[in-house]
Each structure stands twice: as structure tokens, then as C-alpha cells.
Amino acid sequence: MPYGTLIRQIRQAKHIRLADLADEQLSEALLSRFERGQTDITLTKFLHLLHRLHVTPEEFVLLADQPRRIGPDFFGHFSDFYFRIDASGHMENKEKALLRAQNLVTVTAQDYRTAPTRWHLLNWRGAQIHLQRAKHNLDMPDTAVIDLTPVQEYLLNLDMWTAVDMQVYAFFLSELADDANHLILQAAAKHIPERMLDSSWQRILFPAGESQFMAFMVHGKTAYARDTLAILEQITARSPNAMDDQVHLIFLTGWLAFVTGSDQTAGRQKMDQAISIFTILDHRLEASRYRQLKEQITGADPTPILPDIWL
Known about the structure:
Helices cover 65% and strands 0% of the residues. It has helices at 3-13, 18-21, 28-35, 43-53, 57-63, 78-81, 94-114, 118-137, 149-156, 163-172, 178-189, 199-218, 222-238, 243-260, 264-280, 284-298. The radius of gyration is 21 Å and the shape is globular.
């Protein structure tokens, strides 16, 4: 397939107008001619175009059915938003940590004002959530309501998902309503690559789904959790490194059985089995984490379960 044709398919699937892609490097006329196969563009401009579309070079090559190549990270500021202040060693310097988060809000807000694209708006909303979480982790609660309607509408209306979209979903999922998340997860599941070769997908898919499962369980949405478990099984079946994910699935299956099944003993045994496997594999962090989670599930530890995502 000609690259221009594939670019047009990606752009239209993401509901991005040519006018939204155009900037000082890519004119609307040039983009239109490239999509129609009437002109070529330089590699620098092509990589810039992928960046504007929020598609990694690896993904584009896979979509074009060519040998995989390694490209730069195209995830905007979202990698910065996963910075956990309470676990980062910055607790002794609250002012520095807050300044970093506040600066991200300033930068992303200015980006949006300069070029009010949907991508800049998503980054701005992400920075606002990141700052709010930072204040909470530093015992400085911020109760301001952040309008996440643009995020929800963006994810619900995608006709094609890329690794960047999955990163956006993973970051915002704990902020969105359960009903919306259930619909979004179902949509995302339809776009899991047949070949899980792209590391940018591989490292985000299962953790996002597991975090969503935990949220549904904590909120008592066991039917949604069951649907999520089926999706996680689908993800694991397509993953080239599925062993760890399979152990996670054993634990999650046990959790669901413990809460919803008539035989709580069987559910408890599955959770213990997963913890034992992690211990045997010398995955100490995961063994400790799931041991504590099991105690919270069974009531031995009264501490509330707080869904989180581990990347």
C-alpha cells in the first residue's frame, strides 16, 4: 500500500483534519498531494508527520507490513505524567516536585493556546491531572474539577488505536467513569495488534487492563471485571512474553472467584498459587505486592484497595 494512502487511512481513522496536521514544516497542500501519491516528502518531514499523527514509526512499519525498525518516542508529555512524586525520592523537596508538575501545566497550556489541537488539549488535561495527583501525594489536596469530556470523547470515537492512544487511556482510566471505561476498553481490545511485536504496545496493554480490572472490582462492577478478564486472556494469548501475564491472570481469576463464586476457598487458593509462583521466580516485588493485595481482598488487611498501574 502506498504510504500516502496509509497515512490518509490513519488520519481519517483518528478523525484528524489536514488543517490540524499542517504546520511550518507541512503545508496542507503538501499533505494533500502526498496522500494522493502526487509527491514525496523527506524522511525528516515524514517522521514529523508521524509525530503529528501520534503514531510511532514501529507501528507505521507494522501497518505497512514492512520489517520492523526502531524509531523515537512519540508519546508527548505522557511519560512525564507517570512520574510518581510519593515514590520518586522527591518527598524531601516538595517545592521542587510541585514546581516540576506546575511547569508541565504551564507548558502544555501554552502549547494548546499556540496551536489548539486535540493532542495539545489531551496533554494539557494530563498535566492538570498530574499536578492534582502530585498535590494529593504531598498531602495538599486539590479538589478542582477537571473537565475530561474531551479525553472520553477522543477515546470513544477512535476508529484505529495506536500505542499513543493506549498510553493516553492508561493514564486517564482511573479518572473516568466505570461505564465509559468499559466501553473504551471494549473498543481498545478490538485494535490489539495480531502480532505483539511492537514494544510500545506490549509494555502498556496488560498493565492497563489489569488496572482497569482492579478498579471494576473495587467499585463492585464484577460483570465489567469479568469482561476485562476475558480481554486480558486475549492479550496474553497474543503476547510473545506471556509467562508473567499468565501468573497475573491466575491471581485475578482467583480474586474474581473469591468475590463472586460460591467456593471462596478455590479463589483463595488461586491467589496463593500466583504468589507462590512469583516467589519461586524470585519476583520479590510482585510477590510482596500481590500478597498484600490478597490480604486486602480477604479482609485480613483493612487498608482500602487503591487501583494503580505498574509499567
